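dude i think i finally got it to work??
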Amino acid sequence: MGSLSWIKQWKPIRAVREERCRRHFDSNSGYGAHWGVFGSFAEATASTPSVVGFNRRETAFDFDDRLDRVFPYDYPVLFWLDRIFTSANALLLFDIGGGVGVHYYAYRKYLEYPARLVWKVCEVAQVLDVGRARAEQSKASALRFTSSIEELRASAVDVVLSAGALHYIERPSLWEVVEHAESRPRHILLNKLPLHDGNEFVSLQNIGSGFSPLHVWNRGRFVERFERLGYEAIDVWSVPERTFQLFDDTVKSFSFSGIYLRLRVA
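look at this
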């Protein structure tokens, strides 16, 4: 094994391997793959000529198959939302990166929503019109939409939910928004997060229609940022369906994570 590792790192062999991996990453078959360790979103963006991001109308239809079904990684969120909803008659839930309301539609088959629930989805501008039209057609009166995460600062939000979107937001970070909120949310449910035990950095992901930079956070530092704001980690779970791995092994592969943070009551 030692000889094989040495051969792989031999400069000519490594160059061939890297070129092959980059071609795969740049192709359609590289969907979901990651590339590079960068210091910023700008640096990551500069490494590819075709960054598109998620602000396109087609994004609204990417998860049509999720509107009436859930997946294994949804169950921890369902478990905690069920407990939260059971204890309240009225709630404002702020869903960061919730598409056209995919979580609202999928979870209502399994949860009893509070009578006066408001489910506000925060999304990119190109998705909002599709989401609003679908909500009107479906008579989903609890759904609202916004393109500004800053609304968290002024709104009396009870629950923050984000599943697989937070790491694509360059700034402001969620902890920065929560820190300056007039009323801090009692519950924060985050799913499909790239958390690991190493250094924090920015990487690049093939998202199908192009590429997007994303944060990779240190697990301990991520939790500490919220602990300083008065939160405690009630539950943490692994999401084995989502993995992170780089070509050059500078970062060991790891599964994404979910976490439930609850504001301490004084």
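The chain has a mean pLDDT of 86.
im so relieved honestly
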